[in-house]
Amino acid sequence: MTHPWDPASVPAPSTSTGSSIPAGTAAPRGDGSAGDADYSAIGAGYRTYRRPDPRIAEAIEDALGTARTLVNVGAGAGSYEPTDREVTPVEPSATMRAQRPSDLAPAIEAGAEDLPFADGAFDAALASFTVHQWGDLEKGLREMRRVTAGPVVVLSCDPAALDRFWLAEYAPEVIATEASRYPAPARIAEILGGDVEVRELPIPRGCTDGFGEAYFGRPEALLDAGARTANSAWSFVGPEVSERFVRELGADLESGAWDARHGHLREAEAFDGSLRLIIARP
Ligand SMILES: C[S@@+](CC[C@H](N)C(=O)[O-])C[C@H]1O[C@@H](n2cnc3c(N)ncnc32)[C@H](O)[C@@H]1O
């Protein structure tokens, strides 16, 4: 397999905020999207493809400990919101707020960088698959710390481990995009301070939350355009990358070349990818 793309043309990952967007410059879109991705364009099918995975939910529940009240920042359609705690969701995008199930609390329209709550208002805070999109990572995390008396829990990806996923062979531009967006867990830990634990979360087989690596053992599923749209990284690469990906992966699946290299993943119980749970206790 050959790639017309030159890896040297992709900007190096930022070492400051982890975001490719300079701090505080992400412009709100028509639906209020406050991060680097435009959810008015890509958000509509989110809930179809990004259903919370029960095994990841269990790890989050464990990290939240005995907290009774929780603020969920960048809450989106409500994934990973516990139903047995008092949850206050915060979500800037109207497209995402509109997808919240009716049995969850409606989300407050706000961004992480300016949370409309008093100091120590919540027992715990959660941010899942969102910090890499914020215009100002440091401000957002400091706000989470400010409004939370107990653990701040961040579900995110380690940019240094993204290339473990076979997608790097087919769409290195997508991996490079993600590497430039995701902040290093150590950077998140440094900003949040206190007693910080970084847990590596293996991605479970059949993961129902369709972030890229969830498809580690089901490559055919990523040929679905909707599955790719539900991963914001694909919105930063041109359509030619998607077209080449579908063409080359499709051909390798048909010829058996993908299975010869990665077929063992079809039966694997889990994949040690880039998923990390960062728990900062004051
Ligand atoms: C990939 S979705 C994750 C949603 C949800 N937390 C989940 O796990 O499914 C990222 C979310 O972060 C939100 N977001 C982006 N920038 C934000 C910011 N500056 N403050 C708060 N939320 C933001 C987006 O609007 C979007 O709903």
UniProtKB/TrEMBL annotation:
Which GO BP terms apply? methylation
Stretches for region Disordered: 1-38, 75-100
List the keywords (alphabetical): Methyltransferase, Transferase
Give start-end positions of Polar residues composition bias: 12-22
Occurrences of domain Methyltransferase type (ranges): 73-148
Tell me which Pfam families the record gives.
Methyltransf_11
- What are the GO MF terms of this UniProt record? methyltransferase activity
UniProt cross-references to InterPro entries, sorted A to Z: Methyltransf_11, SAM-dependent_MTases_sf
Asked whether the UniProt record includes Methyltransferase among its keywords, one would answer yes
Its recorded name reads: Class I SAM-dependent methyltransferase
